[in-house]
Specification:
Elements: H1 2-5, H2 9-19, E1 54-58, E2 69-74, E3 80-84, E4 89-94, E5 112-114, E6 118-122, E7 128-132, E8 140-147, E9 154-160, E10 162-172, E11 175-184, E12 190-196, E13 199-208, E14 213-217, H3 218-227, H4 237-274, E15 281-282, E16 286-290, E17 296-300, H5 303-337, E18 349-351, E19 355-360, E20 363-368, H6 371-392
Parallel strand pairs: 1-8, 4-7
Antiparallel strand pairs: 1-5, 2-3, 3-4, 6-7, 8-11, 9-12, 10-11, 12-13, 13-14, 15-16, 16-17, 18-19, 19-20
Helix pairs in contact: 4-5, 5-6
């Protein structure tokens, strides 16, 4: 991705000059001050080296009365980051021809992120736009979906060592929700969201670059800030970057392995379709196929993954064969048992999906849905009648 973007960087740099300087957010300054002018972490403005462009963070769910649409990169009707609250839509435009790479696996706290270089600019018409750039211009962007407590509200949403570039929030269905776009301007920068159950204070959510998302009691947060211990156990920046690097390598290995597995996956796809299942779609980096629960997902081209979908195809064929045998043999067994007294009692004679069974006086006998099982069933009809009559006597 970075190599593909390099040819367009010069034009984007010129575009930024044309559109003018970036607009500051209303909630913070580049030096880490909040609206009151305080600097709680004693942060200093500094250039931040490039490495990761976007982190998509979401707060923990505190009520099931409403679940918002969290920030996500979608392509309908065109590529952009989107989300939604109860009565508003969240939107961050992406420059045409630029598709940010998003890593969503391997993070312990459920974040998603990208290590492509990019920055946010404002167009002449005021649109907040994400564009690719070189490493020297790379900005650290947070896309935040904040969740408040049941019947509470947000007591404060503040940027510390950061700028809030866009924000919208709502408190309906007893569930406060806010979508935020923020730019980190200091390595220790974060967005602070305070809320509480049926009140506006009590719990703090920290949405940060260094430590991702974590929660603290308000009193504990204030003490951690005063003592300089806010990120003492929440410093994941290097770990996050390594996850991205490892994921990129896995995806590159997957692209190289596609040729090795493509033919077999096509065969497996045909087998699934023959069973009435959805087939497999081969993409450049992934193939789209079923998991063990039958849900479609993107899967990398790896031997162990191909083995899994092959097993799923085998299970689908076995299930289809069972169903076919059931539809074929059930009426045959029923017709053969017609006129026999034991067969009139559904508790004595039952046709299950994969076999027929007769149960009389605690004795059970099963018959497979095949010719041999049917012939044995016919031979035993008189025996079952006698056993049934003996039980009635």
């Amino acid at each position: 991705m970075r190599l593909a973007l390099s040819s367009s960087l010069g034009g984007l740099s010129a575009t930024r000059k044309k559109w003018g300087p970036l607009k500051q957010g209303n909630n913070a300054t580049a030096g880490g001050e909040n609206q009151s002018g305080e600097n709680p972490l004693n942060l200093q403005s500094s250039d931040i080296e490039g490495g990761i462009m976007i982190k998509i963070l979401r707060g923990s769910e505190k009520t099931n009365s409403y679940v918002p649409a969290f920030w996500n990169l979608t392509d309908d009707p065109f590529l952009a980051f989107r989300g939604a609250g109860q009565n508003y839509n969240a939107f961050l435009a992406v420059a045409g021809g630029f598709e940010p790479w998003i890593c969503s696996d391997g993070f312990s706290d459920g974040k998603r992120m990208s290590d492509d270089f990019s920055k946010i600019i404002k167009t002449k018409k005021g649109t907040t736009l994400l564009v690719p750039c070189g490493q020297s211009e790379d900005e650290k962007i947070l896309l935040i979906t904040a969740l408040g407590g049941f019947r509470g509200d947000f007591g404060r949403i503040e940027a510390v060592g950061a700028e809030i570039l866009w924000k919208n929030s709502s408190c309906m269905h007893c569930a406060p929700v806010a979508h935020i776009v923020a730019r980190i301007t200091n390595p220790n920068g974060y967005v602070l969201v305070e809320s509480g159950r049926r009140s506006s204070t009590g719990e703090v959510g920290v949405y940060s670059w260094k430590g991702g998302y974590f929660e603290m009691d308000t009193t504990e947060y204030e003490a951690a800030v005063e003592l300089g211990l806010l990120f003492s156990k929440n410093d994941r920046e290097a770990e996050d970057l390594n996850v991205c690097k490892e994921r990129r390598k896995e995806e590159e290995d997957s692209r190289k392995a596609k040729a090795e597995f493509a033919d077999e996956l096509e065969v497996i796809s045909d087998r699934l379709k023959a069973c009435g299942r959805r087939g497999i779609e081969l993409l450049d980096t992934f193939f789209v196929g079923p998991d063990c629960q039958g849900k479609l997902r993107k899967i990398m081209y790896k031997k162990e993954e191909v083995d899994k979908v092959r097993k799923i195809a085998e299970e689908a064929e076995a299930s289809a064969a069972e169903w076919k045998a059931y539809k074929l043999w059930k009426p045959v067994f029923k017709a053969a048992a017609e006129g026999h007294k034991f067969a009139n009692d559904e508790k004595r004679f039952m046709c299950y999906l994969n076999f027929a069974r007769v149960e009389i006086g605690g004795e059970k006998k099963t018959y497979n849905y095949e010719l041999e099982g049917f012939l044995e069933f016919v031979k035993d009809l008189e025996i079952h009648d006698k056993a049934f009559e003996a039980q009635l006597a």
